[in-house]
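Hi there, hope your week has been kind to you so far. Thanks so much in advance, here it is.
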Amino acid sequence: MRVLVIDVAASEGGALTILESFYKYIKDYDKSNEYIFVLSDYYLLENDNIKIDVYSDVKKSYLNRLKFDYHYGKKLINKWHPDVIFSMQNTIFYSTDNIHQVVYMHQSIPFQNLKKFNILNTKERKLAIVQYFIGYFIKKSVKRANKVIVQTNWVKEAVIKKAKIDEGKIRTIFPDFNYQEITKTNKKYLNTSEFFYPASNEIYKNHECIYNAVDILNKGNQYEFKVYLTVTGDSSERINNCGYINHDKVFENMKTKVLIFPSYIETVGLPLLEAKLIGTIILASDTPFSHEILDDYENVYFFNPFNANELAILMKKCINKEIVLKPVSKLLCKNRNSWDKVISILNEEGKKYEKN
């Protein structure tokens, strides 16, 4: 079977990580199917059953992306003659001769209810475009797709509600995760006066909540504590902006510090899962994605991500050792080989097209 994989949107961050993870899996484990990756650059290497087709102009503007989605489908089908189309960029192709399409939907911004971004605010404009403009096309795509794959149940429920699609066409497949890298912490190593937040500087990562909580705790100068952030900028007595650190360093910090997670938009929230497996204390935003991962975890404390005072109270309890590490009864063990499940869906949809 020939699979046309569409992911011109992937170039950095989580989208590229997902693409590379899928590529690595099929390169190592799936020799029976042929894959053509349609990308915006040569991020992957070809081999006997993997071909790369690059369209570098697609990412130059939103208009180019729309033209690609609406007009390139027929061209690519005539060129490659696929049995099924797998879109890893949240949207489908149009004009595809009834070839079945599977969408891997991993953009949660249009489906969350916690924040309405303002297109008139220059800091929020890009996210507002994703929420309203691109979100419109994503919802349209998941309606027309033959099958939709999402990573978490909260996203599945939100997509069903907002896109008004039948529950039978959408599957939740939790992403692959390397559990072998994880070693647990214990009370001996954990300093509850030190806090850690591994996140980039997007608005929805919500560093502002941490800054405001630190200001609250600083009043009276009666608490000794330190917050470590993976963003750039000037550090202060209480905040250490250490910039980007690699994954090993992230794990080291999680073992010795309390994780703060004020982000209010995530699909999965990978640091929450990692911190849970490490067994550290977590102060997490009261959001659907946090609850999906952490509701069965003994060492989590939730706060309103738009109320810095709630976070400050929890931080103070950690500093005063009113919150201490509890014994963990079990670890989360999600099913592995998620890409194997995805490939099964692609095979099913490809066979349906062959029968037609």
